Fold this protein.
Amino acid sequence: MVDVREYDPSWVERFEVLRAEYAAALDSAGVPHFAIEHVGSTSVPGLAAKPIVDCDIVVDAEHVAAASDVLVGLGFEPRGELGIPHRWAFWEPDRLVGTSTYVVIAGSLAFRNHLAVRDELRRNPELRDEYGAVKMRLAASGVDIYEYGAGKNAIVQRILATAGLNEEERNSINANQVPVTPRKR
């Protein structure tokens, strides 16, 4: 079953704490980064979401390894790209359960996808509410995470089109098959 909840303003506060920790660690290690972005549904005021704060640490390609090393130093475990080019995922340490942190390459389709969905839903309350209703309906039906993702696909593709991603970009995003693997704690 997928846990989707009404919007919680504390998600923004949680992100700001994460951003400060990540920025301090990256700065201390001398790792250049463009931004640390709050992405995913918790970054959209008013949108129902799984209670997981998603963060993108945005770097140039040559700084991916160094940024990843900083996260490992904070207790994260690397998971690799997981089927999404130019986006590296990590298991969070126990103290940060309920977060998903990624290292992404600036300008990559993976990063533009995250921003496109976030920014379009922030701009378009009707589309935001429609997307939230789809998510709540799917979660209430007791689907697993795979069915949940598949059930959102049509509206996500519409969000991406409305945000200006072209058909080739949307097809590429649609082709990503992210494996969901349970964490062994």
Notes: The chain has one domain: 10-175. The longest helix spans residues 10-29. Residues 80 and 118 are 23 Å apart (CA to CA).
